Amino acid sequence: MNPTFLEQELVQVKAHHKPKRFDVVVLHPPNDPDALYLKRVVGLPGEKIDFANGQLFINEELIADKFSHETERFDWDDRYDQPIPPKYYFVLGDNRAISKDSRIFGLVSEKQILGIVEEGNK
């Protein structure tokens, strides 16, 4: 999650609730249930996510995302055949060039999210 959070940085985690777009969450990734990742929630249940020309589109509507310029092209329909199901989220790391996130391990269930990180607690 560099540059937002540094390696080994301590963070404060709020109690779990339904994350909102751009919340940073602590989660167990689907492909490694013992690991802990910090990722930013980009897609919410019922949505389709696309990145084109350095811009984020949700359900074909342009959405401001300060990290979208670092995100390679992503076409929802190339990977999924329906919108994000209920109780699932699409997450991305802030260092998108090297992040292991939903583009690699898929959607994250609400049960895999341990809490929401309180940003700006340095």
Number of helices: 2
Largest sheet: 6 strands, antiparallel
Compute the number of strand runs.
Answer: 10
Helical proportion?
A: under 10%
In CATH, the homologous superfamily goes by the name Umud Fragment, subunit A
Number of domains: 1
Instruction: Give the topology string: H per helix, E per strand.
Output: EEEEEEEHEHEE
Oligomer class: single chain
| Largest sheet strand order | 1-10-2-3-8-9
Low-confidence stretches: none
**What's the rounded overall pLDDT mean?**
87
- Broad structural category: mainly beta
Summarize the structure in words.
- InterPro entries: LexA/Signal_pep-like_sf, Pept_S26A_signal_pept_1, Pept_S26A_signal_pept_1_CS, Pept_S26A_signal_pept_1_Lys-AS, Peptidase_S26.
- This is Signal peptidase I.
- The chain is mainly beta.
- The chain has a single domain, classed as Umud Fragment, subunit A (Ribbon).
- Helix content is 7%, strand content 33%.
- The protein contains two helices and ten strands, in the order E-E-E-E-E-E-E-H-E-H-E-E.
- The protein has helices at 76-79, 102-105; strands at 12-14, 24-27, 37-43, 49-52, 55-58, 61-63, 74-75, 88-92, 108-109, 113-118.
- The strands form two sheets. The chain has a six-stranded antiparallel sheet with strand order 1-10-2-3-8-9. It has a four-stranded antiparallel sheet with strand order 6-5-4-7.
- The longest helix has 4 residues, at 76-79.
- The radius of gyration is 14 Å and the shape is globular.
- The model has no long low-confidence stretch (mean pLDDT 87).
